[in-house]
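Backbones bend. To wit:
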Amino acid sequence: MNAYLHRLFVHPVKSLASLSVSSSFVSRSGLLHDRRFMVCDAQGKLVSQRTVPKMASIETALQQPHVRLFCGNAGISIPLSPEGEVVTVNIHGNSAQGIDCGNDAAHWISDMLGVQCRLVFQDPNVLREDKGGEVSFADAYPLLLLSRSTVFQINQWLGGTGCSVTALNFRPNLFIDSNGLPFQEDELVGREFSIGTARFKGASLCSRCSVVDVNPATGIRNRELGVMKTLSDWRRMRDLGNGVFVGVNCVVVNPGTVTVNDPVVFH
């Protein structure tokens, strides 16, 4: 399989809009600035597109030394290394340490989403570990890889529904073009590969949920259009707990730098 890095995405705030970048350093915990912030409720529990799909419509921009959040004409700048109260947050049942970003950030994002919530930064002094080893506020693994061929195939399946998807529905970090068969990236599970000066290993297939039904441009979920239903027909795997899988979760073997158009070298 010949492949190259087609696009590179970071998500500075977990569940807010994806941000396309041309290059990034990769540490053990993933891309620089990826999922270092998250939104939580008053009890510290993660707030995501699963329950608040509108989060997809809040865009982000990296403007050193800040991350800028904006929705329409409304915006706020947050320091990339904020200081504040240390709090405990909960990500799908797993505890982590965070730093509360203050009342101004909390009021702004609460107003944008229509729910009371707080913005929290990952405490850089406390290592968070999950299935994929060292991670940011990502669900379990440092990175997600997806191919263009896979997205094309899913749109072929959706052809009769009037619905279509882009890579943004699946929120990958590494979006590759292999000019190969759809879902060929499944073969990377258990295999090492390099992009730029970084080396990775495919860890597992990525289990999917209702977030794929959220329009990444509008933040509106429409289950009737049937993205998850269609994927359930084609990608449900009974030998993996009857889940629906698209994309490959990856871990970092050797940190380095990745850049769009870098070749993918398989080992």
Notes: The longest strand covers residues 243-254.
